[in-house]
Specification:
single chain, about 160 residues, alpha+beta, five-stranded antiparallel sheet
């Protein structure tokens, strides 16, 4: 019986302690709720980034050479020049989005529309403005060190 009495007393003490404690303030609860939402959003964003990256890699696999080689090289240049951009497919083409999910640049393989060159394009959200007129797409027949350096500079400008 003494064991049961101790348990009852213990339960009573806990109840009294909980009643005496006010717990977390409204501000603390709001902060915890906000942080939980941030963590969920971060998890979703990381999952979306991973899915986007996998989709782009699959798109590379569906391409034929020389488009595949150019696309893979562009991917490496873009990721190195602007790590803040995330990869995803856009109309089945490799594309790169900013933090708010807007496409800023994309690669269109020559074989997609049976053209004689591939295209590296930039959307209106890319920060490429230069006076009253500037290019938003570039024809690519081959990637040499010169083109790679120019693309790297353009991509850096896009995220500036």
């Amino acid at each position: 019986m003494s064991t049961m009495k101790e348990t009852q007393e213990s339960g009573q003490r806990t109840t009294k302690t909980n009643k005496e404690s006010k717990g977390f303030t409204e501000e603390e609860r709001a902060a915890m709720k906000a942080r939980a939402q941030e963590l969920k959003a971060e998890t979703r964003a990381n999952k979306d980034k991973e899915e986007g990256e996998n989709a782009v890699l699959a798109a590379f696999g569906a391409m034929q050479e020389p488009d595949r080689g150019m696309a893979k090289r562009l991917h490496a240049i873009i990721k190195a020049s602007a790590p803040a951009l995330s990869a995803k497919t856009w109309y089945g083409q490799p594309a790169y989005v900013n933090k708010v999910g807007k496409v800023v640049c994309f690669f269109q393989p020559a074989q997609k529309f049976n053209t004689r060159y591939a295209t590296l394009g930039f959307s209106d959200t890319a920060n490429l403005d230069d006076g009253n007129m500037w290019p938003t797409a570039f024809a690519l027949k081959e990637l040499t060190a010169t083109e790679e350096a120019r693309i790297s500079a353009l991509v850096k400008k896009v995220v500036s």
